[in-house]
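Worked Example 4.2. Read the sequence first, then its structure tokens.
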Amino acid sequence: MTQLPTSTDRKMGLVIDLDTCVGCHACVISCKGWNTENYGAPLSDQDAYGANPSGTFLNRVHSYEVQPAEGHAQLIHFPKSCLHCEDAPCVTVCPTGASYKRVEDGIVLVNESDCIGCGLCAWSCPYGARELDQAEGVMKKCTLCVDRIYNENLPEVDRFPSCVRTCPAGARHFGDLGDADSDVSKLVAERGGMDLMPEMGTKPVNKYLPPRPKDNVEDQIDILAPLLAPVAEEPKGFLSWLDKTLEKL
């Protein structure tokens, strides 16, 4: 069984703003593209254009309609990927040591050459964040784009996970959550960032920022209303003649 490090030098992870995410799935597509072309075995698809398509994804977006106790229902888009837990059960359950947590940055990875595809890590993950690639027979998971964030051949602006770099709404943030002075840690403190299913005791590094309360629709001003108002109460000229003619039909 693989042992977890007692501590890590950093806690690299994601902060996802559920108030900002629009559910466009750009993060899903960019993640699929980058991880199919680069790190490890490609993310395969089965019967992609057939009756029962399936495939391996490291990042997925689920959408839920939530009805608050007061006010109108809200549509919440919920991205989900590996949370790089401090107490990661997927690591300690691995019989070959293929799953491990890095000491230098806390990122949880899979050594695919040692993975036997037994599925124990997927069974132990309470978040459903691991997927067995049917073509390769190995377990796949989010790597935080470890092959991007340290790649000095890339421009500095691109040394972020692909999903963060791609998000058009700016809903995804990346940084060291072990540093209280980092931008992501300040964001979590300001917005009340939360753990996903804290009762599981896994201490996930990734955090979620809750949706902000919405204003009442009745109190909102429709900025398009003046543009949609009729130009004249009564038709004039040709339109007046046409209106009267149609009334006689």
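Now turn to a second chain, presented in exactly the same format:
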Amino acid sequence: MGEGRRVERADAARNRRAILEATMALLDEHGAAGVTMDRVAAAAGVGKGTIFHRFGSRSGLLYELIAEGATELMTRVLDGPPPLGPGAPAGDRLLAFFDAMTCLVTDHVELIAAYRAMPPHPRTEEFHAFWAEHISTLLREVRPDLDVETVGALLLSSIGGDLAQQMARAGEVARLRAAVQDMVRSVLNAPR
């Protein structure tokens, strides 16, 4: 274990996974208000102290879930198979990215709602900078005539807003995904 790397014990890893899965299930079933440390502990089959020791607070637990989804998507963008990962044309990668981001947001509506009501995640700037750079780089390749930073931010903000949340709650995820793809295609293909 040299170089200061800490290896997680198997039981700790199992507990972590059980806690995160229980939290997501409670969010999906009861919304953010229904996620208490007592409920999470009971659903995960662990003591409440285990949750506090591992995550520090309810916010820390929710932050962990947000970070898990964001870092998983970042990994897929950097190292995953095309078209989301490297190796596909820039336009195809943008379409894949926006579809993956739309799914991330709509698959976790209650988590996103809880997150929006909390202070920003400690890694918010890092995540947003990554998305912005990824989108801008790809947009610049396809549409160098655009203000890629602003257009990219506008495209991304459309997924994180109230409309996306409302459509997901109304069971209109397929419609939202199609509309986001249409919007991205219109930016990629429209002459200025």
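Notes for the reader: The mean pLDDT is 92. The chain has two domains: 1-56, 58-191.
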